[in-house]
Write a structure and sequence with these properties.
The structure is a homodimer. Chain A is α+β, with helices and mostly antiparallel strands. Chain A folds into three domains: 1-46, no CATH class; 55-165, PurM-like, N-terminal domain (60s Ribosomal Protein L30, Chain: A), CATH 3.30.1330; 173-338, Phosphoribosyl-aminoimidazole Synthetase, Chain A, domain 2 (Alpha-Beta Complex), CATH 3.90.650. Helices cover 28% and strands 25% of the residues of chain A. In chain A, the strands form three sheets. In chain A, strands 9-11-8-12-10-13-14 form a seven-stranded mixed beta sheet, sandwiched between helices. Chain A has a five-stranded mixed beta sheet with strand order 1-2-7-5-6, with helices on one face. Chain A has a two-stranded antiparallel sheet with strand order 3-4. In chain A, a hairpin with a 2-residue loop joins strand 3 (78-79) and strand 4. In chain A, helix 2 (84-97) runs parallel beside helix 5. The longest helix of chain A has 17 residues, at 118-134. The model of chain A is unreliable at 1-12 (pLDDT under 50). At the A-B interface, helix 1, strand 1, strand 2, strand 5 and helix 3 of A face helix 1, strand 1, strand 2, strand 5 and helix 4 of B.
């Protein structure tokens, strides 16, 4: 039995050899895709879920809204460059931003393991409060649950967000067009490496800090400049490669990417080589790709580079129409390699 | 050191003798109140959170929206009368309904423990899908995370919901008025007893089924009939008593309740006596109280009784103005007892 989604109907209760949930079902790779396509999508079939987007885009009264949710199970709770609280707020703001929405309101749910020191909970909540304040959004509703020791892992956070869409575009995977420029907002791989280093006590020459950040300001700046954004995607679980593959698959278009154009810091590249990871698949928490008309690419890059968060923004490729649903990477030595979703999971619980 | 919230500033990092989170911090009683008042509210201070309501009431464009979130950690996942999926959908719909909102959209976040059989996940998702379909709401966005075996308890679900407020009232604790009738939508105590019976393998003469249900239809029927609802509250963690106490405290009014007017099924009463529980404090998942002008009480009761979900609705008391922030229960033998929040937790993880 093959596990390719193209190979016809697959029984939702036996994804290949997996009758039970395994870690990779949450890893952003092939197994997670199968769970979504064969179990979740059919049960909750509706036009919003079918958009396959970071946020659902809704019409309520006269307003276009974006609505998103995420659960955060990162281990450890505190890491260089952030913590689970900052991650939860920034991640939710970023999901709203990926619809081009201006974030307005957040909710927050805590699942706390019995025994968590109140001082640690306070640190996390302060961090959430600070991240929300910086973005001028309010945490307007919440919920707190406590589970017994051994039934959680210190703290899980779920958050949801509502944003308002004030631009005229349909920013979603299905909107990309042949000729679109693919812009990356900065260097990749830091969040995943920061987490694994902290978790495993690995010491590299320098401390690698997570890129965890709220990028909604960058997106709103692009829109304010009149950039006709076709699609946005933040590069979380599964990294740059998985984001590109999902967009190419939904849009049924070919995306060509140049490996040498993708910024990876030297220390991150070194850590990846030691750990056997490919930076293209490593999670980021403050990076995104934007698909824009080629004619506006220079302008978009200038807008991004004007903000410290986007100072390393660069053009990494374009949408072509030579074949359907494929991402081709031109490697440093000039070969072309088709990117594929990961089958397993290389870095569990990075967000 | 006293743990009364009225006794002046309390250091948020030493709630009495608790430097670490204990189960009761999630139990809906005094410790949870302290966590909210001393740690969470000050950090996220905003007018929406200050409403102390099941949903935040927001204005976006020309629309009034309700926004809510809940995390579900019920153990076991399946119980007589429902499961965690039905509970998550109904609980979120009910929180929206408590603002008098018509539910529109839901989100769903799954935190799955490695090893959960896919057939069980499917059963839960089918149950969610069915509950959402019955209420004509769509699950428009979601998230899936997997944690290692021993870092969860099979499945936790977080959900958020958006509803639209189409009535002119300010349904919230601060809106209750002296003279208001307090209406209870049905018998109490079944959800908590169903959970504890299933969890502990207790066999009573009959199987006690959870009251888990979406009550938004009842609320919308009251509004359609022109009832000027002042406040609504569903009777989840902490039960009827805790809901009344929180409303009386926020509104700084006195609520008088008659114990003999409160419907408790005989089998539930019997189970409570055996287990040493007070049904007033037991969680329900399909019951609510409504505060309405006395002149409209009869009409409101008639509306509720016309629906099988509200067939046992009854008038249980009224708001008076004789003293501030207190709930007084007139007992079966005619004595008056002031109700207080629970200090510990009697039934952990019932939702």
């Amino acid at each position: 039995m093959t596990d390719s989604p193209e190979s016809g109907p697959v029984c939702p209760l036996s994804f290949g050899q997996y009758p039970n949930i395994v870690m990779a079902h949450g890893g952003g790779g092939r197994l997670m895709q199968q769970l979504l396509e064969h179990l979740i999508q059919p049960l909750f079939d509706n036009p919003w879920l079918a958009q396959r987007h970071d946020s659902a885009m809704l019409t309520v009264g006269q307003s276009r809204l974006a609505f998103t949710t995420d659960s955060y199970v990162v281990r450890p709770l505190f890491f260089p460059g952030g913590d689970i609280g900052k991650l939860a707020v920034c991640g939710t703001l970023n999901d709203l931003a990926m619809a081009g929405a201006r974030p307005l309101f957040l909710s927050m749910g805590l699942v706390i393991e019995e025994g968590l020191p109140l001082v640690e909970l306070k640190r996390v909540l302060e961090s959430m409060s600070e991240a929300a304040r910086r973005a001028s959004v309010a945490v307007v509703t919440g919920d707190t649950k406590v589970v017994e020791k051994g039934k959680g892992d210190r703290l899980y956070i779920s958050s949801a967000g509502i944003g308002i869409i004030e631009h005229p575009w349909n920013i979603m995977p299905a909107s990309i067009r042949p000729g679109d420029a693919v812009i990356l907002s900065g260097d990749i791989g830091r969040h995943g490496i920061a987490i694994i280093s902290e978790r495993e006590g690995l010491a590299f020459e320098s401390t690698i800090e997570s890129d965890c950040a709220d990028v909604s300001c960058l997106v709103l700046a692009l829109l304010a400049k009149g950039i006709e954004i076709h699609c946005l995607r933040d590069l979380t679980r599964g990294g740059l490669a998985s984001a590109l593959i999902e967009i190419a698959t939904v849009a049924k278009l070919h995306i060509a990417i140049r490996e040498t154009a993708i910024p990876v810091r030297e220390d991150v590249q070194g850590a990846c080589e030691i750990l056997g990871f490919d930076p293209l698949y490593i999670a980021n928490e403050g990076r995104f790709i934007a698909f824009v008309p080629a004619a506006q690419a220079e302008c978009a890059l200038a807008v991004l580079k004007a903000d410290p968060l986007g100072c390393d923004a660069c053009l990494i490729g374009e949408v072509t129409s030579t074949s359907a649903g494929v991402v081709a990477l031109e490697t440093a030595i000039g070969l072309s390699r088709v990117l594929d979703l990961l089958s397993g999971e290389q870095l569990p619980r990075i967000c």
